[in-house]
Amino acid sequence: MTNKKDIGAQALDKHAEFRGKIQISLKDKIDDISKLSLYYTPGVGTVSGYTAKHPDETRNYTWLHNNVAVISDGSAVLGLGNIGPYGALPVMEGKAMLFKHFADIDAVPIVLNVHSADEIVAAVEAIAPSFGGINLEDIAAPLCFEIEERLKKSLPIPVFHDDQHGTAIVVLAGLINAMKITGRKLEDAKIVIAGAGAAGTAIIKLLHQYAKPSMFVVDSKGVVSPNRKDLNEGKKQLLEYTNPSGVDGSLEDIIKGSDIFIGVSQAGLLTQDMVRSMHKDPIIFAMANPTPEIMPDEAKKAGVRIMATGRSDFPNQINNAVCFPGVFRGALDNQVSNITDAHKRAAAEVIANLVKNPTPEFIIPSIMDERLVPAIADIIR
Amino acid sequence: MTNKKDIGAQALDKHAEFRGKIQISLKDKIDDISKLSLYYTPGVGTVSGYTAKHPDETRNYTWLHNNVAVISDGSAVLGLGNIGPYGALPVMEGKAMLFKHFADIDAVPIVLNVHSADEIVAAVEAIAPSFGGINLEDIAAPLCFEIEERLKKSLPIPVFHDDQHGTAIVVLAGLINAMKITGRKLEDAKIVIAGAGAAGTAIIKLLHQYAKPSMFVVDSKGVVSPNRKDLNEGKKQLLEYTNPSGVDGSLEDIIKGSDIFIGVSQAGLLTQDMVRSMHKDPIIFAMANPTPEIMPDEAKKAGVRIMATGRSDFPNQINNAVCFPGVFRGALDNQVSNITDAHKRAAAEVIANLVKNPTPEFIIPSIMDERLVPAIADIIR
C-alpha cells in the first residue's frame, strides 16, 4: 500500500507539473502570412466546398482519418465508481496519451455532463462527424450496453466500448496461452467469473462465442441464476451463456472443481481456501484494480502456477492497452466502420500468438511490445 | 479571379499532403513503462479522485486550463452557406491552427450533426466539462443569437461567437483609428451597415454601446424599418439601435450623405455612384469574402481614402484573428467565465491603440503583430 500511495503522490506531482498530458500541435508551420491564405481563408473555402460535396473524402483533407474521441460520462471510472466528468478527465486524457504513444492516433478526451442513455447517445451522435472513431470508456453497466448498441447502429464510424471488449479480447488471449501450457481445452473448462458489469459481461459473451465453455457468473449476491428475482436486464441476458442447470450458491460453493477464475470484481474476494477447492493446476485472472481478488503470493501458496492481474508490477498484466491501439489503428486505416465479434476473436488469437513459447509467467505480450499494433491492425479489415 | 483559383487549388494540395492541419502531441515522453503508472493506471486514479472532489482544480491537472472547442453546425460557413459538418471541418481545423499559432491554445474542432437551437445547446452543454472555453463559429443567424445567449447563461466557461463579436471588435478598432485620421467623432457619424446576419448585428450592438451613432441597416430587401412585415426576431431587435425615424428605402437611397459604409453582405453590392453620394471623405469597410462589396481600386476612383476589407492582399485587413486569440488567452489565463460588452469595447480600444500613428493604409494592426495577444489578454479580467 505504501508503494501505491507513493505512485499516487508522484502522479499528482507530475500532472501538476505538466498541467495535463496532451496538447494540440501543428502539422505544418505558419512561417508566413501566405500559409494562412492556404490553411485558412480564402484557400480553405475551396477545401470546404469540396468536402461538403464529397463527405467521404473529408478524411483525406482533415485530421479525420486519424482521430478518435475517448468519451466517458464518468459513471464508472477505474475502481472509483461514479465520480463524474471532472473526475473522469485525467483518465480520458491518459487514454489519449496511450493512443498517441502506441498507435500514433490523435485522441480527444470528451467527458459528458449527461448520464441517461438517451442523452449520451444524442451527444455522441451530435459530435460524431468530428471524429473517425468513438472509444467509449468508463460508462457504468448496464447503461453502457444500450449506449454502445445504439451508437453502433446509428453511426457510420467504429464505436468500441473498451472496458468491455478490450478487456475481453486480452483475457481470451491470455486463456488461449494458459490452455497451451496446461494442455487443457477451453471448451472443456469450468470457468467462474466474479463481476457481472461491463467487463464481466463482455468476457462471458466472447468466451461463449469462442469455445462455449461451462461458465458461472457471480455478483455481490452470489451465482447469477434463473431463480433470482433481483437481476437487471443485463444480468438476465447472461443466463443465455452461463449456469445452464440453474444452480444457486455463493462464490465459495460454485468455485469448487472449476478450472479458471476470472475476477473483475473487488480486492480480496478470492481466498486461499477457495483456490484450493478448484481443479488441479487452476488458472487465476484476478483483475480488480488496484488490488486484485487475491494477491499473487497468496495464490502461489495455494498452489497456483498461472496467474494474471491488471498490474504492471506482476507478471502477466491484463491491460486493455495491449489491444485497443491496434484495433483503432486497423479500423481507421482500413476504414472499418464496425468492429465485429469475428474481429475480437481474431484479435485475441493474434495477441496470443505473439508469445511464441508461453510459460506460466509469460502468457500475454507486454504492452510495450511493438509488434502488437501492426499485428492487430492487420486483421481489422 | 485567377489568383483566387490558384489559391484554392494550392489549398487543396496542401490539405491533401498533410491530411489535416492539427494533431495531438504528448507533453511528456513515455520513455519507460513506469511513466504509464503515473500518467495512467494506477497513478491517475489518485488524480481522478482529487479532481472529482475538487472540480475547480481539474484545470491544474489536465489540459483544461488551455483548451477550447471550436464548434460549428456548418450552417453558415464562410461565404459558402449551409454546407453541413463535413464542409465545416476544414475551416474549424484551420481555426484551431490559428488558436495554436497565435495564442498557444489547444483548440479542438467539433462539427455538429444537429441544427436546431435545442439540439445544439444540448450537445454543447453535454461536452462542456471537456473544455476551458467554447468558440462558436459559422452558425447561421438568427439561431446563433439564441444559442450563444443560452450557453452563456448555462455554462461556467466563456462562450464567444467569434463571427459576431470578433468581427465587431475589429471593426470598432478600425473605426476608432479612421475617426482619428478624419478628425470626426463616431457619435456624430451616419453609418450604413449592409448585412443583418451574425456579424452585422453584433457590429450594430457594439457601435451603439460605444458611441450611439446614427445607424441604418440594409438587408436584401432594403432598409430595415418598422414598416416592414417580413422581419425576423433578430432584425426586429435591430430597430432598437437603428433607423430611429423609421425611414424606408434602398441602399442607394439611405447611403446618401452617410460617413461610413460597413459591408458584411455580398460581392459588388456597393457602386461607385453610391460612394460618390456619401459624405465627403467616406470610410468604407467592405468585408464580403472573398470578393468585397466594392474593390479597393474602384473605391479609390470614387474618392475613398480609407478602405478596409477582409482580405490579406489589400491594406487594412479586418480579420477576427486580430482579436479572438487574445480574448481566449485572457479568458483562460484569468479564469474569466463571461466575456462582457465592457471587455469587447476595451479590446477594440487596445487593438486600435497598437497603431501609434494611424494612416489611411494602416488603421488595423497586422494579424502577425505579436503584441496583440498579450495586450488583449491583459484586459480580459
Structure explained in plain terms:
Two copies of one chain form a homodimer. Chain A is of the alpha/beta class. The first copy, chain A, is built from 16 helices and eleven strands. In chain A, β6, α9 and β7 form a beta-alpha-beta unit. In chain A, α8 packs across α9. The first copy, chain A, starts with a helix and ends with a helix. Chains A and B meet through α1, β1, α2, α3 and α4 of A and α1, β1, α2, α3 and α4 of B.
Strand % of chain A is: 5-15%
Cα radius of gyration of chain A in angstroms: 22 Å
Structural class of chain A: alpha/beta
The major sheet of chain A is characterized as: 6 strands, mixed
Mean pLDDT of chain A: 96
Can you tell me the residue ranges of chain A where pLDDT is under 50 for at least 5 consecutive residues? none
Query: How do the helices and strands follow one another from N- to C-terminus of chain A?
Result: HEHHHEHEHEHEHEHEEHHEHEHEHHH
N/C terminus separation of chain A: 44 Å
Count, helices of chain A: 16
Q: Note the quaternary state here.
A: homodimer
